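Subject — a protein and its fold
Encoding — discrete vocabulary of local shapes:
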Amino acid sequence: MANEIEEVARPYVSLSDNVNKKNGIYRPAILCVFLIAVVGLCGKTIFNRPNDGEHWEERPAAEYVISRGRIEGVSEKSVGASISPYPWTNAELSWQRTGFHFQPEKNWMNDPDGPLVYKGWYHLFYQYNPDSAIWGNITWGHAVSKDLVHWLYLDLAMVPDHWYDINGVWTGSATFLADGSIAMLYTGSTNESVQVQNLAFPENASDPLLQKWVKSEANPVLVPPEGIGLKDFRDPTTGWIGEDGAWRITIGSKLEMTGVALIFKTEDFVKYEEENILHSVNDTGMWECVDFYPVAASGVSGLDTSAIGVGVKHVLKASFDDDKHDYYAIGTYNATSQKFIPDDPEMDVGLGLRYDYGKYYASKTFYDQQKERRILWGWVGETDSEQDDLRKGWASLQTIPRHIWFDNKTTTNIIQWPVEEIDELRSAPLVVENLLLQPGSVVEVNTTEAAQLDIELVIEFPEDAAAIDAAEDNALYNCSTSGGAAGRGVLGPFGLLVIAEKNLTEQTAVYFYVAKSADGKLQTFFCHDELRSSLATDLILGVHGSSVPVLANESISVRTLVDHSIVESYAQGGRRCITSRIYPTQALDGAAKLFLFNNATTAVKVQSLDVWQMETVFFHPYQQLEQEHLVV
């Protein structure tokens, strides 16, 4: 270790708590720091960029397509044109495109739809605008993969071409029927903008790529029931079959300000009977993209959506239209009363846990029967302006697919973790062990490339009795309002600075903060601070996070995936997750750095830091690979 760390003597100044608010973001002050170089293996250059001095061509405002999602009654990004647009260059905009996260070749993408695995291929359908980089003309894009990492683009799966979906082929889910065939239910926006449910089947069940879909002549198979708003009835779930042999699905809606999951019974996915309200929560507004599925009370294996009985819990998730977050609760499904009962009413949907505390929405799971696991997809929108998206020609990402299971240690949350296949992209490992981070220190991790990383950090839980006694009351701490990484306490903040410029004029902090609860016990908070991530003036930035359970004898840990303009973090083995979008102007290519930092007044010990470079995945159209005679 002595040969791997070199201390560079500099005057100490802690991370600045001065941020200058301008045009809706916070601009950082230049920081003076202790700098320690951690010597590691060099990674290879992954991206070639356009000329730095080149700018994207300006277009008259009249040429921009006007977003219409809100008018049509469905959520979509509508940041609009910035009052003070930032003069992005080609190089800066090109850098934002990711290296190993799924995104289309161009244009707008939002919700994941009908994910499944079929005849050896993983399928991802997604909301897509083939005409523009903002929401509109929603069709279903389609991609396939053998490993959830390397994706091949296929032709559009479904387009708005009937009166019942002419204003959009919206979110839907796939159900495997008893004979192995697939029923795809989706929401269509009609010629009068009424939300109805429609049915489609593969044209050729022997085609493993499921390239052609046929819409049922019975469409629409479900219309808004009495008492439900015509624009408040969307996003059918995967079906589950009961002991009575009937299938059931649930669809999101609202009754005034009460969010509801309506349940419908069907024998054939064509005719339906409205059966009950599966669950509702007052004052939560419109529920969309509802998901409902079982998890095993022990182990990490997934369950088919129809599983029920001893040793089975159920998860109910709803995407809240009012605040654009995904909330979930764990509980029991009563198949007799067709009711979901949360384990803890105080942790009901919208009152307790979220899948992700950052930029994350409209998620959907599926059961992977090949590996007996449940996989979660989630949409990550942009936090720049629509004008910027139109200039770069694309918008939105999907997260890395997450393997999810019930946390039988806490028994209060699910675990989310990147699918194991993503580990195959790791290269050039760097390992640091037993490093003491002094109060106010910043440590550079010597990776030659820092734009595509997989980072695992483990920190010893604080044991200093005097520091613990002096720790702040957690009632006063909140990730979003307590100063972010620049705030300073006895036991925090400490963690990582990713996509950081060498002088820290741009940085994104992934950090922990330990405070004391009313009973004298310590509580750990996990946060992302985006406020200093960019000097650009047309962004929506913030500090996001929540408390995270750290059990007795556990260390504090986080895994962070860095991929250009997206940062995904998984704390305590995946008990809490945060996703951020970032748009640096200086910390690009070789100028992007990785740091450890400790802005607490007490030293913290890094037990281990593992860093890998992540290989770039090049997505291609499937037909192109066929023409080139490549094996897929």
